[in-house]
Amino acid sequence: MPNAAPRPCLYPGCPTLVRDGSGRCPKHLELKRKSDKQYQKQYDKDRGSSSQRGYGGRWQKARATFLTSHPLCQVCEEKGLVVPALVVDHIIPHKGDQTLFWDSSNWQPLCKACHDQKTAAEDGGWGRTGRGG
After folding, report:
1. pTM of the prediction?
2. Contacts (Cβ under 8 Å, ≥6 apart) of 31
3. pLDDT digits (tens, 9 = 90+) for 93-114
4. In Å, how far are 4, 6, 7, 33 from 1, measured between CA atoms?
5. Sign of the torsion angle spanned by Cα atoms 128, 129, 132, 133
6. From the CA atom positions of the chain, what is the Rg in Å?
């Protein structure tokens, strides 16, 4: 069976490529093992605020406009369910790439449950204390 392609470490800003199931490079895996609380504090500091990550006033306006014209969760709608969308999801995670961030063809309307499930799948599963971006 072929090996999976390497992916960047889940720690914000770490470019190290990893292949193991933890999703973290040895340095950040060790930090995680030492103290989940310490790891979360450092992760939050390094990650920056939502505004620093591009989710300021301009995004809030774009989000509201998008949800007005796309009011239903795309995933639920495909299952025949009618569920209001509350989140504008980046189909391909932008990881700080502003071109991808603002590309509305990379947006999809999701309910919170579908967004949480998608994010958990992308970031390594439920119960993680940090996200990849």
Report:
1. 0.58
2. 38, 39, 42
3. 888 888 999 999 999 999 999 9
4. 9, 15, 18, 30
5. positive
6. 16
